[in-house]
Amino acid sequence: MLFIGDDWAEDHHDVELQDGTGRKLATARVPEGVEGIAKLHALVARHGGEEPMPGQVVVGIETDRGPWVQALIAAGYRVYAVNPRQAARFKERYGTSGAKSDKGDAHALADMVRIDRDQLRPIAGDSDQAQAVRVVARAHQTLIWERTRTFQRLRSTLREYFPGALTAYAGLELTSTDAMELLVKAPTPEEAARLTKPQITAVLARHRRRDRDQKAAAIQAALREPRLGLPAPVAAAYGAAAIAHARLLIALNEQIAVLEEQVSAHFLAHPDAEIYLSMPGIGEITGARALAEFGDDPTRYTTAKARKNYAGTSPITRASGRTHAVQARFVRNNRLADALQRQAFCSLQRSPGARRYYDKQRARELDYNPALRQLGNRLVGILHGCLKTRTLYDEATAWSHHATLPATA
């Protein structure tokens, strides 16, 4: 067998080849792209034969996506995506000085997959459709997170010079496009006070708001309330900064809506979509995010516990001497955790069994978040069973052993 450590950079890869005893066979720096992958295959052929058997070449690399990783998988290599945090801890056995080099990183990765590959997770063999869902779902969620960050910056700016805008536009959702258009139209308190009711109504009508006359009147009244002001040049400077953030939010809203359509289209084209959508609390976007992070490799999760551990919903035990504690997992896939938390919350209104289970956790004096996490953990187990047996969710079957739980008051 050959073991390869691949320390990747933007334009090149430092690789080291080892045999089963840890003897260094070759080191090289190969470029990114077709030329580099060809040179890597040539090194493998030189030391492992022209056509190594499947599983004879094991690669450790600190990423799980990209054309390079796909090329390694297509060549029949067993590829392990090593968490950078794991790699950093592993390298501490070589010394504590903190010295670092690309060759040293490649050597450590080769050692990891040779010695500890049973403790590592190989890259799942997800289908092309699942990979497509992952790309658009992650991009969509990233834009939503970016919108939140941008709005927080805008909110901080408005608090410094125009807090009345936060009050006036609160009824429109402060990140909405029509609220941002009104802010662009009148970025300072003086300009906002001069906005007329027809001007405000026209913006609301363009975005199909209901009760436009009442909302326009309320906005106009809030903008005209007397407030403390700043000198005109300072207010104008703040207004320019607010316009920049508002225009960015308008663009983000537009692209989020476009990507949302792509997420739904790719998700509904996947054969597992029907099973995900049968689960309580899961819609198209939440289902797409869960599918994107779980993947669809049928061999990846051998048990429901393995899926729960990956999801981060199952607790961990810390025991040392007389100390024994059961705690929540905080090192986890945040994208998947967000989707499962949302599903658990929404299932409370959609599933009587989920509601009873949640009430049972609260009766044990668990707080809101721990109880919701326990419910999410249970729902992950149910999802695993549905995917394994290729059956849709059934309320009676899923909660049959909880049927005797007391109903919520």
Automatic annotation (TrEMBL):
UniProt cross-references to Pfam families, sorted A to Z: DEDD_Tnp_IS110 (PF01548), Transposase_20 (PF02371)
GO biological processes: DNA transposition
InterPro entries: Transp_IS110-like_N, Transpos_IS110, Transposase_20
Superkingdom as given in the UniProt entry: Bacteria
Transposase IS116/IS110/IS902 C-terminal domain sequence ranges: 275-358
GO molecular function: DNA binding; transposase activity
Transposase IS110-like N-terminal domain: residues covered: 4-163
Record PANTHER family: PUTATIVE TRANSPOSASE FOR IS117-RELATED (PTHR33055:SF3), TRANSPOSASE FOR INSERTION SEQUENCE ELEMENT IS1111A (PTHR33055)
Cited NCBIfam families: transpos_IS110
Protein name: IS110 family transposase
Species this protein is from: Streptacidiphilus pinicola
